[in-house]
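Appendix B: complex inputs.
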Amino acid sequence: MTVTQERPGVVEDSDDMDHADNDHHPVGYGRMLRKEDPRFIRGLGQYCDDVQLPGMLHLAILRAPLAHARIVSIDISAAEAHPKVRLVVTGAMLAEKGLAWMPTLSGDVQAVLATDKVRFQGQEVAFVVAEDRYSARDALELIDVDYEPLPVVIDVRTALAPDAPLIRDDLEGKTDNHCFDWETGDKDATEAVFAAADVVTVQDMVYPRVHPAPMETCGAVADVDRVSGKLTLWSTTQAPHAHRTLYAIVAGLPEHKIRVISPDIGGGFGNKVPIYPGYVCAIVGSLLIHKPVKWMEDRSENLVSTGFARDYIMRGEIAATKEGKILAIRTHVLADHGAFNGTAAPVKYPAGFFGVFTGSYDIDAAYCQMTAVYTNKAPGGVAYACSFRITEAVYLVERLVDCLAYDLEMDPVALRRRNLIQPEQFPYTSKTGWVYDSGEYERALDLTLEMAGYDELRREQAEKRERGELMGIGLSFFTEAVGAGPRKDMDILGLGMADGCELRVHPTGKAVVRLSVQSQGQGHETTFAQIVAEEIGIPPEDIDVVHGDTDNTPFGLGTYGSRSTPVSGAAAALVARKVRDKARIIASGMLEVSVADLDWVKGSFHVKGDPGRSVTIQDIAMRAHGAADLPEGIEGGLEAQICYNPENLTYPFGAYLCVVDIDPGTAVVKVRRFIAVDDCGTRINPMIIEGQVHGGLADGVGMALMEMISFDENGTCLSGSFMDYLIPTALEVPHWETGHTVTPSPHHPIGAKGVGESATVGSPPAVVNAVIDALKPYGVRHADMPLTPSRVWDAMRGQATPPI
Amino acid sequence: MQVSMTVNGEQVTREIEGRLLLVHFLRDELRLTGTHWGCDTSNCGTCVAWLDGEPVKTCTVLAAMAGGHEVRTVEGLEQDGVLDPVQEGFMQCHGLQCGFCTPGMLMTCRALLDRDPDPSEATIREAISGQICRCTGYTSIVRSVQWAAAKERETALHTQTETVGSAS
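Resulting structure:
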């Protein structure tokens, strides 16, 4: 294992790429070009919409134009008469088959097609299957729906008012829009600390509704074999196995007659975790007309109806001594879950992992109370690379700490440094019960400050302030909890969050590894080959990685919450070790020594004291499949399988620093520099890690400055296209400066922690803190995202208001 | 209506509806699925291909408008089994992750290098600013283009030297 525990922090990327780990060893970790890329750069990726089957028909969905309305009648006769239309289906027709409603991943139900009323604008009302995609769209225009408009609930603050319209009258006995209450921490102990504290800083903040908006929208191709009854479903899913099991439950199809294929996926970011009505419609369409049916949503449908993220209104309170020792953190959250609770989070964690809102600080007490409500907005909740709501938690605590620094007139670096959990305190149990596995926080903080030239930046800022120029420096320090999760604590609809892995070494020493997770761009075909290569000594080029196909991979819960490396990566390493253990026994037979007399040198076994006598893993593979005798009790073949149940989550962390300049005349924010130091434990492929970080940083800048899904007072979504929902282009983001430290996870087989969401989690508060810092001359202590020019302008005039 | 055009050097003729968008013509009629469909509003650029040598967003061009013209898609970048330096650059510098924006990015960046063999970082960012990548944060795309530009300059120098050498 090439874990470099004592390695000092490394600055990379100040000028160019990280070549520090650019090894050309035959096997194992290091910068290795991706095995996926040759097909993508030729335009030969196979995405869902690229699937073309003989006789395939096209499905389009009619969506509600109103946010809350009773369906009085639906007339589909004109649509049915369209010459190219083969099928039109309404909610009433699905209800006859018991398919009008489906379970969500959080135990709620969601309408596949509306039967009684529509509950958000964009909700699915009917679908058409036609010979081509344009005709299917044409026919939607021919469906006549008579709606009786109902009053809407859009402002989450009024959702629980006694006179609020009832959204979920489909739930028996439901009389209000309450979704759930949740709390964590010790209320009384926290109260006591707050009562005795020198300083209490309170800040209300809004984390607006945003959308993952992957470049590929959601879609599916369903093909039911009329003879065998077997369904093959190509779909844009981050969790093919979980989806298959749910389809078996929803549709009553036998699970062995369902094959879910998750082909190349054009970005997920959590958007492709839930089951959407469109997938179910495609299945129903194919079942009814015995033809393959394709559904691909357009961009507006994606933005208006699929899994959003955030939408938390938070009151944060932080208690401290006047010297800046943080004593306690308390928060109340009002969570907008939309019309159906479609959150994808472990059952015991309805608020995801928001419980880590105590951040990276050693404090005495903490408490959170959360109320979640239904509103007439699209369902969803956990999406957009949020690590199960840790994005919201980190934003809360990192903004609060900066507010405290403002109140105490302390440097935000000094305040954080004073309160960071110290290396010797790990494993550290937080006041909300999370066991942080390992960390060396100050090392990462120091590296960030060194890379940024912090003192010099502060000097420059002081000079600029003299001249009336607005420059801001923002810091954030985050700790994530990823790799869900231990099955005793974590399941989704009863499915434990463990992951399977299978490894088979062929006679010639080449291998295939089958994963339960799949990739939406993370490069699993490369990194998982590297993980196995590191353990078993077969070059990664010789290891084929199979994923995203339920017929050909072991069961597991899928790729989200940065869980692939922490869970499946562990499974891949352990299954390779299992194969290596068998290989050792076979080698002992080949070399006629006991297993104890063998040394493993990556790729071969050597006789201790006689290194000239050795066999390679390839020799062993041939022997395992050959005619010669094997040691007693050893079966032929060289393969193994495993199901890895993580002992704990892993806790990657990082220190980020953002430098912004604001034009005082236009209030336009320009991100000048962004320095990110990440510690994700053992690093498998630094090139891919850097890419994951870069992407997340762009997400963070987008959320902080540009992105928001907004609604008018009638519940009409105002962000239904990329002309209205703004995503950063190359002009809005800087050249990223990244560095890293390595603090392996003690319980993970290879010490890796996961990095997919670190930057999305850590960067928004750094950007916002930088903007607020720039506005210090105006006496601004807080302003909510997205910090668009108009919102910054308002803040400069003392009129900062929440975006909702 | 009937439409004929040259796509990646091959003459194609199809009977189509007048309203058919070029992106769907390429994808559904010609099965050139490298050109992607991402937004319908010319904002994302996953559908960029060339029309007479200029990058266009094929989600807002009718197939009929391409009649009689030359179209080049990502499938036409590789020539005789040799990758375009821009394709190589994206692989070398991790200029892609999910690969969905990649074909459009490649076509835009190829066009950029054709008119500016040594673009600055600012020029590259400007050139791709009509396109969105959700995965890379753009820095690696900038590097990929710089890698390709450097390789092309080196190749040009090498070719020049060889020509001079053979002349003497």
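The mean pLDDT of chain B is 96.
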